Target: Cytidine deaminase
Amino acid sequence: MPDLDPEDEKIVILARSARARTQAAEGAAVRDTDGRTYAATTVELPSLRLTALQAAVAAAVSSGAEGLEAAAVVTDFPLVQGCSVQAVRDLTESAPILRADPAGTVQETLR
Model:
């Protein structure tokens, strides 16, 4: 992950690890404005469906985060789902969203 800020590299690694640990479709991590990180994976239950990024944002909010510095999602998909982007934007309009492939290589940064 050349030229990636060490703090952004950390959330990509956390997202990748979460995805690998549960073998979920996606893994995600966010960093709040206090520097705390939260990781999550796709949730697919009969009564609840969340993208990994929605779940990570929910974990941050439920822990008291008022804003995000950055977000990362590790996925095979070529795009970050709109509902995932919106979950981040609900907290912070300017937080970059890094989309990485399963190897952890950042493919795109949404701003």
Remarks:
- Strands lie at 26-32, 37-41, 43-44, 49-50, 68-75, 97-100, 106-110.
- The first helix runs from residue 6 to 22.
